[in-house]
Amino acid sequence: MAREQHGIEPVYDARSRILILGSFPSVKSRETQFFYGHPQNRFWRVLAAVTGRETPDSIPEKKEFLLQNRIALWDVIKSCEIEGSSDSSIRDVEPNDVCRILEAADIRQIYANGGTAYRLYQRYLYPMTGREAVRLPSTSPANAGCSLEALTEQWSVIERWLK
């Protein structure tokens, strides 16, 4: 098991209203140096469907998409021991300091992308922030039992903050 560093800067600005947190970047995301880089991850398609916009393709398009929709994006973990992309193998966690986002933006709600991100948030970040997070179903291809339509429906709760 290798110790991995996050290495991807958070995306946010003063206009961000929600913060979406994943657990830790997948191998593919670490290679592409941006969030949800695996082509089978449905994150970008779900957000596009919820916002009624085109699915962004390039990293600059994805950053612009997030900022235009007032979405801050980062992960709970700064570094950890992990086997490949397996959330279940995560050990020896060093959390990210999300307070820098909370101090710079008027974040109205924090969302966790999946159960692992939610559990890690509760364990490592909730004691720092004192702010509740809402667990959303994972957009990961490992969550194959949840269709794109079902994900989009459940993720539509974020819409109210994006206006």
Helix/strand-derived class? alpha/beta
CATH fold-level topology: Uracil-DNA Glycosylase, subunit E
CATH class (first level) name: Alpha Beta
The rounded distance between the terminal residues' Cα atoms is 43 Å
N-to-C SSE string, H for helix and E for strand: EEHHHEEEHEHEH
So, CATH architecture?
A: 3-Layer(aba) Sandwich
Task: Using the alpha-carbon principal axes, give the shape.
Answer: globular
Number of helices: 6
- Poorly predicted runs of 5 or more residues: none
Percentage of residues in DSSP E strands: 15-25%
Mean pLDDT: 94
Total of domains? 1
Strand order of the largest sheet: 3-2-6-7
Describe the protein's architecture and organization.
By secondary structure, this protein is α/β, with parallel strands linked by helices. The protein has a single domain, classed as Uracil-DNA glycosylase-like domain (Uracil-DNA Glycosylase, subunit E, 3-Layer(aba) Sandwich). Helix content is 33%, strand content 21%. The chain has helices spanning 27-32, 43-51, 59-68, 99-104, 115-129, 148-155; strands at residues 2-5, 18-22, 71-75, 77-82, 91-95, 109-113, 133-136. The strands form 2 sheets. The protein has a 4-stranded parallel β-sheet. Strands 1-4-5 form a 3-stranded antiparallel β-sheet, with helices on one face. Helix 2 (43-51) packs across helix 6. The chain is globular, with a radius of gyration of 14 Å.
